[in-house]
Amino acid sequence: MTVKTIVPLATACLLFSCTLMKKHTVGDELSWNIQALDERAKSHLDSSKWDTNLFEQDKEVYANYAENFREFPLNSTPFPVAEYDYAVSSAPFTVEDGGYIFKGIKIGEYKDPNGEEVIEKLTIWILTNDDTAEESSWASSRNYPYLTAQGFFKTKINQFDWVFMASPDGFSSLLINMKLFDLRFGETIVIFPQEDKSFLYEQFRESPNNYKEFKSYIKAVLSKIKLSQHLGSSMQVDAAQEVKVASTPADTPNKKVGSFADPRDGEQYAWVQIGNQVWMAENLRFNSQGSWLNPANPTDKYGRLYDAVAIQNACPIGWHLPTDQAWNELEMHLGMLAADAFVSDWRGTHGAEMKSQSGWQSSLSEHSNGTNSSGFNALPSGYCDPENGNPVYEGLGHSAGFWSAAENGISWQRWLGAPMAGVNRQPDYLATRFAVSCRCLKD
Hints:
- By secondary structure, the protein is of the alpha+beta class.
- It has helices at 34-45, 52-64, 66-69, 214-222, 225-231, 324-333, 351-354, and strands spanning 3-5, 88-97, 100-110, 118-127, 134-140, 147-154, 159-166, 172-176, 179-182, 188-193, 199-204, 244-246, 257-261, 268-274, 277-280, 291-292, 305-306, 319-320, 346-347, 383-385, 392-394, 399-402, 411-417, 423-428, 441-442.
- The longest helix is centred in the first third of the chain and has 13 residues, at 52-64.
């Protein structure tokens, strides 16, 4: 899973126009000569060009998620920057082969902030031999047009802290436990921890950018003779050999699931544990005043649609309507970064993990359906405009909206869309008549 961001912790499609130059894609020849970089540096010092809304948002995020930021000592305080239009990517992965386990991270930038193509700038592998080894990373867009990131790997032997910087003029470097790598000589770094807490390493001129599929890149790295010399002949890989690659923690099988009965009407619902939360894995179907049933629903699993009044007491005993914070916890578990928690827009790519594997239709994308790797199983139930008792149903097969508990007169709804890989967070001020779906969270 790729995490997309224009905010310091990184993710989402909230884009800001750059006051220095016209919107551009990464790699434009005219973009960043030394004069343009000098002008950009000056704009950061000019308070009239600061993005004050972004700065205030950052301060709120840093205040609310101070505990999360303690893991990233170089990113513990916000700072103002000039407006910009840029998105960066951070994607963890795990490789298992020949009895060995590598944890890894890819850091890159989106070729077009509105697109999906990522240009990878760095790929780190750490030999952990432990699929529970901890990895964390933080890609930042705040130094635009420079890409910066930091993170760590915690193994049974040692902890490896790293800092990465890529300049728009083509120079990039990685500092890992005070070992400096000039990435002009290879963008793939492989670390081999040693029992005495030292480490060995290799640097390869391989990049995921050179392959259509990430698995092909993995096999190319595993086939390196120098890698085999570190690990033994069991790492020799041929083209037909299957290599296990896990892209995110959500791909892990054996999710904890179950079912329960709503005592009000006897309806049975599936539930799934996602992180530390237990969510209904189906839309609520309880028939109450202010709820609406689309007669075109393919199955009853699409559930009923609830208006702002009906939703207040919709959940059964033992369950409750999730707060905005509860939704954020779910989304961050699936890969959304904390900086996007308060963004009112499309965020991340984790929506694909929440959407069902069928039923989503879009003429704009060949990848409308999700993977449902989270078990949330969101169906495209659309929404309803009751129109004084004459309901008009829209969005069936194309969208899904979910309520959150009202706080200060606002319900921060979550929306999924057929052509979109992310999740939209948008406010409902409880004055709208539109009815959307309900998912309840276990007490």
